[in-house]
From TrEMBL:
InterPro entries registered for this protein in UniProt: ARM-like (IPR011989), ARM-type_fold (IPR016024), HEAT_type_2 (IPR021133), LisH (IPR006594), RELCH (IPR040362)
One of the protein's GO biological processes: intracellular cholesterol transport
Main location: Golgi
GO cellular component, one term: trans-Golgi network
Compartment(s): Golgi apparatus, trans-Golgi network; Recycling endosome
Start-end of Basic and acidic residues biased regions: 16-30
This protein's UniProt keywords: Coiled coil, Endosome, Golgi apparatus, Lipid transport, Repeat, Transport
Leader sequence segment: none
Name of the protein in question: LisH domain and HEAT repeat-containing protein KIAA1468
Organism: Oreochromis niloticus
Extent of the HEAT repeats: 839-877
Taxonomic placement: Eukaryota, Metazoa, Chordata, Craniata, Vertebrata
Compositional bias per record (Polar residues), positions renumbered to this chain: 1-10, 127-137
Pro residues: compositionally biased ranges: 35-49
Coiled coil regions in record: 173-207
């Protein structure tokens, strides 16, 4: 007997069919004439022998398959040599009594498969209590155990089908194997129960129409029975399938939308155990046709001419009439009137017929495969689509491929794309265009982004295998449409990458302008991931194509420069910084391919030798590329080739010059001067623009190398930035030293290399700029921009402090003032150790400067320290210095000093340490407000009132203790209101409202929580008062200049 696993459901039916010819009927009584075991049966042990262990390795696993089954062996063992047969119940009782549990289980399984269930075994194995051990120790040998006793391990029983090759059983007292076997049996029983319940549910769902109504319909044929839910869902599925097969796709979409509660991609959605019927066409063709007779069924299903049987086999038949033969054979129950029956009865006899059969069957197989495993069908679908002779069937199969998974994940899309590429390689460009591209086009507007993503990725993957005309027309248009219209970032990102691949294969020069517009369009995309894809894939590929066309430095780069210049011309009153970033970032991504062009068109290219000792390229020689496509070594071809070219490049620049080197001469004579001219036109106060151009020049100089930077770049900047007072137009303030050229040269060119001579050059340049601007009374914006950009990197903090110390000890008071103001910019980024050791000593030195203007210039820096530093000792030193400014009699009439202090308090007060604000800032503001009431010079009174109003407006948002509120904040506001009554009644109204709310809040706080603190702006009583206060604040500007103008009008 072939091996049978009693726990395997799939074997049960086959075993049940084989068993009548292979097993012994253990239930037939002697009176039935059942032959007993032959006298010489080697499997019949003596009657007094113990039950055998049923080692199936000697019978069930024999090559001939003629061994006896476990049940037969057990029967033989129990019966001995007697001729009479023992009932199966006795055998079962004996097996259970002797604790042959696994043998009893297999005996029970075989009886079930034969359709004869034994109650004793059923009750035993369905009771979990029989398998729970009460003790971990085995019973004594003479202990008699009933069926419910603890299980002892029998000898190892290995069957071929139950053998687990991952582990082998050893004799002993291990319960794991037995427990696993029992659990497998229980699992199978549970599955059978679930299947039966599904069948019952389906029957119940099909019979929703009451029985009385069904009788009425049968008795009155003219009354049509209403459609059942399952029938409706089945018909809907068949209708939708018919529409799709016959190219009524719009109708199918509409039909799907009208039945949105049904999934038309999965037949299992129709019902629980409902088999899928034939399609509508087959149902129509069979409509009205009488069912085939049993005789016809037998003829078709057998379908084999006896003459054609292999081996010249001739069936032995009696001399019967043909009609009798057909009637006799009709009792073989076979079915060929269904689609599947017809396929089963028609065996493929050639490769072509196999393809035809797969083409017919796959559309029915796919919907019944789990979604998570459908990618396993991809090879089958692709092979069939490649080799099938019918175009319509191939189209259907490729449609199935692209619709295989509703929302394919990344791995599934990669598998489908791999299959598409394999298909394209096999069938060639013509069929790819005719068969694959239409599938992409159909799904370009699919509702699921994963499906549109598959289309975008397919266009790139298939680009090398498409006809060049289609590649540069239809595919390019598809991707352009998706880039402009698709709302999903990940789809547009894939579109950009596919466009880059397309650019690598386009050979039509007329498409250059379209490619350029696509580059600008994608660079302006709001999604960062799309823009990154442009720089990583599209621009390098587009640059490679323009290099081949010879238009990289003659068309592409000049076009971007022209757009930047136009933007600067149009943006005199407001530059569009985003567009500037777009164009400049594109230029920056073109630096590596431009350098590759310079190397490949150099005079020394014919002298390149790749053999011998080629020095390795330094890791820091080039900036880190954004992607492999921006790596100069990748563009050139290899690191060895690049290293050899770099060696000759440096030698050529240092010793032989640039004569005849057209590409490099274009960079030196046209590109660099145009870039420097553009830099001089950008707004120096725009930190974003300064940073963008600084990064551009840094990457440019690092890519072209140190020799190029020292001999070609720096001289052109130095020629323009002649450090002399004549080069600064003090009256107009538009000299070149006041432009963005200074910070971009300092931070983009002079910081490229960090050796000692480079740092000295940077320090000397900044010192000269500071001196020149100070002595010329020119704006310091360019110097401030340099400090801000360099201060963002801690590496340059020591260098900047060195520059400032040069200013601290300078002989000119103007330079010392500039140095004092520069400290304010540097404090926020420098660590507290440097502040304590380098910044504060320098400021203390300047605060005792003979020139009062220098001392006043230190106040903003001191204020910034109070705002940012946490060291108490440091804060006390700063506090003492500020107190000396406020309390020293020599400063009593210093209007400029008081203005600077009030401005600084208003700026740093909200962010300063609360104790410093309550004990120092607010009391001194109160004193200044009180002193301003008696100011006789009206202009000075206006200035002080202006700054006080701004300071109190800023501090009103802080939480202030009740004591400080009563003693300093409210009195200071009242003093300020006294000034405003005469100078600006509108501002006086606002101050009155603030004072009133503060007084109410103090009263309420005194009654509820005397220890609390309060914020004026956040604690206004009543929504009306708050709305009134904020609206009036919004109507006024707190700009000092505007308030001064208001006061002037009131004179």
């Amino acid at each position: 007997m072939a091996s049978v696993n009693p726990f395997n459901l799939s074997d049960s039916e086959e075993e049940a069919e084989r068993r009548p010819n292979e097993t012994v009927d253990t239930e037939r009584s002697p009176s039935d004439g059942a032959p007993g075991p032959p006298p010489g049966n080697p499997f019949s042990p003596p009657a007094d022998a113990e039950p055998p262990s049923l080692l199936l390795s000697s019978n069930r696993t024999s090559p001939s398959g003629e061994g006896i089954s476990a049940s037969a062996a057990a029967t033989s063992a129990m019966a001995g040599s007697a001729d009479t047969r023992v009932s199966v119940d006795v055998i079962a009782a004996q097996l259970l009594r002797d604790q042959y549990i696994l043998t009893a289980l297999e005996f029970h399984t075989e009886l079930l498969e034969a359709g004869r269930e034994l109650p004793r075994l059923r009750d035993y194995f369905s009771n979990p209590g029989n398998f729970e051990r009460q003790s971990g120790t085995p019973p004594a040998k003479d202990q008699v155990l009933g069926p419910g006793g603890p299980l002892n391990r029998a000898g190892s029983i290995s069957t071929l089908d139950s053998l687990d090759f991952a582990r082998y059983s050893d004799d002993g007292n291990r319960e794991t194997d037995e427990r696993v076997a029992v659990l497998e049996f229980e699992l199978r029983k549970a599955k059978e129960t679930i299947q039966a319940l599904r069948a019952n549910l389906t029957q119940a769902a099909e019979s929703e129409v009451p029985s009385q109504e069904r009788k009425n319909f049968k008795s009155s044929p003219e009354i049509q029975e209403p459609i059942r839910p399952l029938e409706k869902r089945a018909l809907n599925f068949l209708v939708n399938e018919y529409l799709l097969k016959n190219e009524y796709k719009l109708s199918s979409i509409t039909f799907s939308d009208e039945n949105d509660d049904q999934d038309f991609e999965l037949w299992d959605d129709v019902g629980l155990n409902i088999p899928k019927p034939p399609d509508l066409l087959q149902l129509y063709r069979s409509c009205g046709t009488p069912l085939p007779s049993p005789r016809d069924t037998a003829d078709v299903s057998v379908g084999v001419d006896f003459v054609d049987l292999p081996g010249n086999f001739e069936p032995v038949l009696l001399k019967l009439s043909p009609a009798f033969q057909q009637a006799l054979l009709s009792f073989c129950r076979m079915c060929s009137d269904s689609r599947l029956g017809a396929e089963v009865s028609r065996i493929a006899d050639s490769e072509e017929s196999v393809m035809l059969m797969l083409g017919r069957c796959l559309p029915h197989i796919v919907p019944n495969v789990l979604l998570a495993k459908r990618e396993e069908l991809i090879p089958l679908i692709l092979c069939t689509a490649c080799l099938h002779p019918e175009p319509k069937e191939r189209d259907q199969l490729l449609h199935i491929l692209f619709n295989l998974i509703k929302r394919p994940d990344d791995e599934q899309r990669q598998m489908i794309l791999t299959g598409c590429v394999a298909f394209a390689r096999h069938v060639g460009p013509t069929r790819v265009e005719a068969e694959l591209l239409p599938q992409c086009w159909e799904q370009i507007n699919h509702k699921y982004p994963e499906r549109r993503l598959l289309v975008a990725e397919s266009c790139g993957a298939l680009a090398p295998y498409l006809p060049k005309e289609i590649r540069s027309s239809l595919v390019l248009s598809m991707l352009q449409q998706m880039l402009a219209e698709d709302k999903a970032d990940m789809v547009r990102e894939a579109v950009v990458k596919s466009l880059g691949i397309i650019m690598g294969y386009i050979d039509d020069p007329d498409k250059y302008s379209q490619g350029f517009e696509l580059m600008l369009l994608s660079l302006g995309d709001p999604s960062e991931r799309v823009v990154n894809a442009v720089h990583q894939v599209f621009i390098p590929a587009f640059a490679a194509w323009t290099t081949e066309l010879g238009t990289l430095h003659t068309a592409l780069i000049p076009s971007l420069l022209a757009r930047i210049e136009k933007l600067l011309t149009q943006g005199e009153h407001g530059l569009d910084e985003h567009k500037l970033h777009v164009f400049l970032s594109a230029l920056q991504s073109l630096i590596p391919p431009l350098f590759a062009v310079v190397l490949q068109n150099a005079p020394f290219t014919s002298r390149v030798k790749l053999h011998g000792d080629i020095p390795a390229i330094e890791v820091t020689r080039f900036p880190r590329p954004a992607s492999p496509l921006q790596d100069v070594a990748t563009i050139i071809g290899s690191r060895e080739m690049l290293s050899a070219l770099l060696q000759l490049y440096d030698h050529q620049l240092e010793h032989e010059g640039t004569t005849g080197w057209e590409s490099l001469l274009w960079v030196v004579n046209q590109l660099l001067p145009q870039l420097i001219e553009i830099v001089g036109r950008i707004n120096v106060t725009s930190s974003t623009c300064v940073h963008e151009f600084s990064r551009f020049f840094w990457r440019f100089c690092r890519t072209f190398g140190k020799i190029f930077t020292n001999t070609k770049v720096k001289p052109q900047f130095q020629e323009i930035l002649r450090l002399s007072e004549e080069n600064v137009d003090a009256s107009a303030g538009n000299g070149i030293l006041t432009k963005a050229t200074v910070p971009i040269y300092a931070t983009g060119v002079l910081t490229c290399y960090n050796q000692e001579e480079d740092r000295k050059l940077l320090v000397g340049f900044l010192e000269d700029v500071m001196t020149t601007l100070s002595l010329s009374h020119a704006p310091l914006d360019s110097l401030k921009a340099s400090f801000v950009e360099l201060g963002a990197n801690p590496v340059y903090h020591e260098l900047l402090l060195t520059v400032l110390w040069y200013g601290v000890v300078h002989t000119s008071a103007l330079v010392r003032c500039t140095a004092a103001r520069m400290f304010e910019l540097l404090v926020k980024g420098v660590n507290e150790t440097l502040v304590a050791q380098r910044v504060v000593p320098a400021l203390i030195t300047l605060s005792s400067d003979p020139e009062i203007s220098v001392r006043i210039s230190t106040i903003p820096a001191f204020g910034t320290i109070m705002e940012t530093v946490t060291q108490k000792e440091l804060l006390e030193r700063v506090k003492m210095q500020l107190a000396s400014f406020l309390e020293d009699p020599q400063y009593q009439d210093q209007h400029s000093l008081h203005m600077e202090i009030i401005r600084t308090f208003g700026r740093v007060g909200p962010n300063a340490e609360p104790r410093f604000r309550d004990e120092f800032v607010l009391p001194h503001l109160h004193k200044l407000a009180l002193a301003n009431n008696s100011q006789s010079v009206e202009n000075k009174r206006i200035d002080i009132a202006t700054q006080l109003f701004e300071a109190y407006s800023a501090l009103s948002c802080c939480f202030i203790s009740e004591e400080v509120m009563v003693n300093h904040f409210l009195p200071g506001l009242r003093c300020l209101r006294a000034d405003m009554e005469q100078l600006s009644p509108e501002h006086e109204v606002i101050l009155s409202s603030m004072i009133k709310e503060c007084e109410i809040k103090v009263e309420n706080r005194a009654m509820s929580d005397p220890q609390g603190s309060m914020s004026i702006a956040s604690s206004l009583v009543g929504e009306d008062a708050k709305t009134k206060f904020l609206s009036k604040m919004g109507q006024l500007t707190t700009s000092g200049a505007m308030l001064a103008n208001v006061f002037q009008r009131k004179k």
